[in-house]
Amino acid sequence: MKTLPQFLKKYFWDVDFSELDKEIYASFIIERILEEGDGKAVRWMRDNLDLAQIKNVLYNSKDLSPRSANYWQLIFNLKRDKILCLKKSFQKKQRLIWKY
Q: Measured in Å, how far apart are the chain's first and last C-alpha atoms?
C-alpha cells in the first residue's frame, strides 16, 4: 500500500486517512489537493503523481469548483473548453440542482 505523508492528513478529514492508497485513490487525492491544498501539498502531488493523471482529473472532474479549475487551467496551460466543470452547460446543470 502506498500511504500518504502525514502533512496531507488535514485535507482528508472526511475519510479514513490510513486507508488512502495513492495508486487506488489517485483521482480523489488529486481533486482534493487541487481544491484545498497549499504549496507543499501541490509540490508533493507533482513529485509523486503522474502529470498526465493530474491533467486528466482537471479535464474530467465534476467536483472541482470553477474557481479552482480556472486557476489550474492557467497553471497547466490547458484548453479551457475541454475542462468539464468550466463548460457553461455543466454550470447551468449545477445551478438547477442546487439553487443556493
A: 40
